[in-house]
Amino acid sequence: LSGGVLIRDWSKQNKTWFAAVQTEKKMMFIILMLIIAVAAFNLVSTLVMTVTEKQADIAILRTLGASPGSIMKIFIIQGAVAGLLGTAVGVGLGVLIAANIDVIVPFIERLMGVQFLPKEVYVISTMPSELRWSDVATIGGSAIVLSFLATLYPSWSAARVKPAEALRYE
Predict the structure, then answer these.
(1) Residues 61, 51 contacting (CB under 8 angstroms)
(2) Phi/psi at 47 (nearest 5 deg)?
(3) Most exposed among 71, 117, 120, 132, judged by the fewest C-beta atoms under 10 Å?
(4) Among positive and negative, which fits the CA dihedral 141, 81, 44, 46?
(5) Is 22 helix (H, G, I), strand (E, B) or coil?
(6) Which of 152, 154, 160, 163 minimizes the C-alpha distance to 68?
């Protein structure tokens, strides 16, 4: 333009800032997936302990005619129910917190006597939160899939319990 006026697109002017925000979003997603993986590992551990504790009961079911497939189904259903309930509670609490973050953060700040985002230090003074249902669905779906996959090994090991060996020391 004439007259020495220079016009710049604000999104191009702050290109590095937008790239940093995108990188941060990706890292938060990876961290969230790691948290879900830890929860799935806890589900595996719980089911393995359940199989170990219930070996005599599994052996009795097998001697009464239960097939390895039906034993496997029992533990898959138990793990799936735990995974679905955990996912439902986690998604519900996450949505509730994200929707009310503007109320929750000031309450915690007053309770602890600390300001998380002081205006003197940060450009923003509130905790921004945007709830994207596609992200909620992706995270919830990932949690359900991982919880189902987490049930496979314990249920498989339960199906392999040999009745004679399990009841030998009972």
Answers:
(1) no
(2) -70, -35
(3) 120
(4) positive
(5) helix
(6) 160
Angstrom distance (rounded) from CA 44 to CA 66: 23
**Which pLDDT belongs to residue 1?**
52
Residues 6+ away with beta carbon under 8 Å from 43? 79, 82, 83, 86, 147, 150, 151
pLDDT tens, position by position, 47-70:
999 998 998 999 999 999 999 999
73 or 114, greater pLDDT: 73
Tell me the C-alpha distance between 17 and 163, whole Å: 63
Distance from C-alpha of 41 to C-alpha of 38, rounded to nearest angstrom: 5
What average pLDDT does this structure show over 68-90? 93
CB 49 within 8 A of CB 163: no
Written as six digits, the tokens of 41 are 């590992």
